[in-house]
Amino acid sequence: MDRLPLPLDGITVVAVEQAVAAPFATRQLADLGARVIKVERVDGGDFARGYDTAARGLASHFVWCNRGKESVALDLKDPRGLDVVRRLVAEADVFVQNLAQGAAARLGLDAATLCAAHPRLIAVDISGYGPSGPYAEKRAYDMLVQCEAGLVSVTGTPEQPVKAGIPAADIAAAMYAFSGVLAALVRRGTTGRGGPVEVSMLDALAEWMGHPLHHAMHDGTPPARTGLAHAVIAPYDAYATADGGRVLLSVQNDREWQRLAEQVLGRPELGTDPDFATNAARVAHRERTDAAVAKALGALSGDEAMARLEAAGIACARLREVSEVAEHPQLAARGRWRRVGSPVGPLRALLPPITLPGGGEARMGDVPALGQHTGAVLRAVGMTDDEIAALRRDGVAA
């Protein structure tokens, strides 16, 4: 049987993007086969290129979010640079931008303006707080939005709220922008019309706050911060093992507790003890519950603890360091790692989570150097070599 093509083969995306939210969204489109033309500043490009040098001299954020794209470096404050973008948009299916609030409108690159001129275009505006309201003009960086959306208030220990260790607000906005583009493409397939797509980081992350938000709205109190423990289930926490690791386990019902007490703790009497026999009792006596579990697992190595928990049918996991995830046996067994090209040579990268059996594998293209594709793209929109040379000479293109 012939393999199906990637679902976005033939789709062209133009992105005036920076940092994480828009680049991560358009990387999903590139992985699914779209051609993504990334427009960057001539003076350094996407500022995420300078966040760090951890990826063999390249920035880890940039490597993560920008594979498979063509980089075109243009000065959009110069009418000639802006004209190039307008030519590209005229032939594109999708346009994505996450410039500072109001910047795209000043350039005529906001979704409303572009969609009015190009009815089949899908144009995405990604912002921090949305186009209106008292926060519309506020700077919106990931940690700030995590705070405004309440994520920080429910993450951490009882004593200390903490931000998520990943850019959760950026990722949330990126994934809603990605799914919004896919939905708009489906609609265009039936109506022939594109249209604007609006996504804000606050809206996206507030949606992800669903459980604690509904808990607080309807019960009157937010869930407590409990670190790795669970606010209303016990035992559900990470416990130290004899070899210095930590194993997390979760007991979801009283039958599991009885098995844990008998087969792992070696204390079958706890399965029927009124202080432990029900989840409500275990939560009420959380310190004693945790102490019993900690004592038993603390005498075992990590491998022994995992084996005993698995044999008892108890949900469990290792608390892994990030470096251990890079060597995770499940990812290795399923062949989830690939190599992508970059200006510093091949780099490891995970296959994207969307798998389409029977179709082509995700298109994991190279991470581009700044302006790597400027000449080719400008020639494709009809510019001569002399015109391109003039733009480079004047600092309008790089």
Overview of the molecule:
The protein is of the alpha/beta class and 398 residues long. It is built from 17 helices and eleven strands. The protein has helices at 21-31, 60-65, 79-90, 103-107, 111-117, 142-148, 168-191, 201-208, 210-219, 254-264, 279-284, 286-297, 302-311, 322-325, 329-333, 374-380, 385-393, and strands spanning 12-16, 35-40, 69-73, 94-97, 122-127, 195-200, 236-240, 246-250, 315-318, 337-340, 347-350. The strands form three sheets. The protein has a six-stranded parallel β-sheet, sandwiched between helices. Strand 10 (337-340) and strand 11 form a beta hairpin. Helix 1 (21-31) packs across helix 7 (168-191) and helix 7 crosses helix 8 (201-208). The radius of gyration is 26 Å and the shape is elongated. The mean pLDDT is 96.
Name the overall outline. elongated
Cα-atom radius of gyration: 26 Å
SSE order, one letter for each helix or strand: EHEHEHEHHEHHEHHEEHHHHEHHEEHH
List how many beta strands DSSP finds: 11
- Poorly predicted segments: none
Q: Which secondary-structure class do the elements indicate?
A: alpha/beta
Sheet-strand content, in percent, reads 5-15%
Strand line-up of the largest beta sheet: 3-2-1-4-5-6
The rounded distance between the terminal residues' Cα atoms is 45 Å
**Major sheet summary line:** 6 strands, parallel
Mean pLDDT: 96
